[in-house]
């Protein structure tokens, strides 16, 4: 069974997001070993912190992210500059990984400041859910649903229309 991890910086603090993510996490159990790893967001005290302060925080988060990735897993960095792909293309990416014998995948959602360059460089795929800005908690819910949708496409189920 394919291992799919969702590594997130920050916690879900809204009940409705947590319930939605939990529902898709439960559904995903039929297709993959799916786990969510929550890492703490680095605290930045200054309201208008300098780029150097933000970069330092991102680097610390990046080290925590990379140390949480399973050995051999393909990293998918969720970032605005990433490629926009369809649900079918995401399904193909997961299927290609599963069929390659090195099936593990780690999706990564950074903090409100984004992702460290080191994480982006390590990524097999930089993935954007569009040019819109959304709260990271909503992004987690949407991504979890899309991973579930990709798995149902690969299984030939009718969920995806």
Topology, element by element:
Layout: E1 2-9, H1 15-28, E2 32-39, H2 51-68, E3 74-84, H3 87-99, E4 105-109, H4 117-122, E5 125-128, H5 136-154
Parallel strand pairs: 1-2, 1-4, 3-4, 3-5
Helix pairs in contact: 1-5, 3-5
Count every helix, treating DSSP H or I runs of 4 or more residues as helices: 5
Distance between the termini: 25 Å
- What structural category characterises the helix and strand content? alpha/beta
Order of helices and strands: EHEHEHEHEH
Low-confidence stretches: none
Give the proportion of residues in helices: 40-55%
Q: Report strand %.
A: 15-25%
- Radius of gyration equals 16 Å
The shape, in one word, is globular
Order of the strands making up the biggest sheet = 2-1-4-3-5
Task: Tell me about this structure.
With about 160 residues, the protein is α/β, with parallel strands linked by helices. The protein is about 45% helix and about 20% strand. The chain contains five helices and five strands. The protein has a five-stranded parallel β-sheet with strand order 2-1-4-3-5. Helix 1 (about 15-30) runs parallel beside helix 5 (about 135-155). The protein is globular, with a radius of gyration of 16 Å. About 30% of the residues are buried. The model has no long low-confidence stretch (mean pLDDT about 95). This is 23S rRNA (Pseudouridine(1915)-N(3))-methyltransferase RlmH. It comes from Faecalibacterium langellae.
């Amino acid at each position: 069974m394919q291992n799919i991890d969702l590594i997130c910086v920050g916690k879900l603090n809204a009940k409705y997001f947590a319930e939605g993510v939990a529902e898709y996490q439960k559904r995903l159990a039929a297709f993959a070993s799916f786990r969510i790893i929550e890492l703490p967001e680095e605290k930045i005290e200054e309201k208008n912190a300098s780029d150097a302060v933000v970069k330092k925080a991102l680097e610390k988060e990046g080290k925590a992210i990379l140390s949480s990735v399973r050995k051999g897993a393909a990293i998918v960095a969720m970032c605005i500059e990433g490629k926009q792909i369809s649900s079918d293309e995401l399904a193909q990416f997961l299927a290609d990984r599963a069929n390659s014998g090195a099936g593990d995948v780690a999706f990564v959602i950074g903090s409100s400041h984004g992702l460290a360059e080191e994480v982006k460089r390590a990524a097999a795929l930089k993935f954007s859910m569009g040019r819109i800005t959304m709260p990271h908690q909503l992004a987690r819910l949407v991504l979890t649903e899309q991973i579930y949708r990709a798995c149902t496409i690969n299984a030939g189920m009718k969920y995806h229309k």
